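[Solved] Which block belongs to which protein?

Original post:
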Amino acid sequence: MASVQHYLFLLALCIIYVESADPSAQLCNENSNKTTTEITKNINSLLSKLVDTTSKSGYSATSFGTGQAQVFGLAQCRGDVSTEDCSSCIQEASQEILKICPNRVDARIWYEYCILRYNTQNFIGQLDTGYGIIYYNVENVTDPETFNEGLGALMYRINMLATGPGSKGVGKGETKLTPFVTLYALSQCTQDLSPLLCRQCLAIAVENFGTICENRKGCRVIYSSCYVRYELYPFFFPLDKKLALESSSMTNYRWVTSKP
């Protein structure tokens, strides 16, 4: 449970959590500067650029404007989702982020399939684990020793994939724990990170598996620079529509926040 001080800090950041078919977290940093008319115009133009590019390629990091009104932005879809799902997610994110943060220069929004953020400070290429959102399954596994051994080996393997050449920052895989139980996992960094920074981000994220998510049947750790998730059911694509819908359910999940 977060301390009172941490709780007040989060309130100051005006973080809004949403539990829905597509779980998300949203941050409007109330400690950041207020927008001006010129910055607002640049944000709108930036979002148009991000939506257009990301809908086609799955990733975009760019800026718009000059001087103090320049705005930097990044958008990225989860590496396994289709172009159609990516486009839909980014378009929704670009609309929602303006609703939750209409007057601040630092805004971020996460969906299961995508992330979008902007700021007048240049964050591109920098590791950001300043705060995280962790979703954990309330149910525990029945054989922690076998489970944790398999999870550790799987995460090592997919994190190596995520930081390898041509990976675009994503790694995914599965491993059989027993003849009847299979563990699935996915890790991803934002593509602006170097392989070294990606490894650092994933290592920080995975540390939560042994604390907040210890022996849990499922866990999702979301930072601004990376994302890790494991489940005892398939959740990454290729996946049929029914399983895709089930994998986004948060019925058995709770969330906490974490700072490194």
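(Second protein starts here: sequence line, then its structure tokens.)
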Amino acid sequence: MSTYYGRSSKDLQPRSSRKTLSESPPSSPSPTAKTFRHDRVTRTLDSSSDKVLGRSSSYTRRETRLTARNRQENEDHDLGGKDYRKMYEEALQENGQLKVRLQDSKHELVKIRSQLDKVTQRQDRMSERSSSHEAEKREKLSLEKKVSDMEEDLKVLTDLRSENQRLKDENGALIRVISKLSNQTPQ
């Protein structure tokens, strides 16, 4: 594991793609390479002193971002090899299917509610009919009672008529008897 000057091994993860100074080939360094190494060492030392003073250079911020990104990539690969993009696409597909099922369920619910309303209206009509049937039955019973009362009154009336006719006949007979008797009386 390699470390940079002024940094602990906790802050930086090792980079497998970058070669350390000890891994570089044993050729003589070019003047630009020497300058580059020297600049990097001085920048690292300067950044350490800047951190002590509460300042950080853009170089250290960039390095921090890169190490954080590498750390995140390593964590992503270390999490059991899960492909989050694939999982995301599967979740999107499942959400789409669930949305379609939800819409179907909503349409079915609307149909069922309309059917329930129709059945309720039918039952209301049936109950109205049954209540009107009951009212009709009561009215029919009362009418039947009136008819039977009228039939009895009619029987009484016919009896009264027949009795009245009999009385008229008796009255006529009495009138004839009286008139015969009055005609027979001496004058």
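Accepted answer:
You had them paired correctly. Confirming on the second one: Residues 21-82 form one domain.
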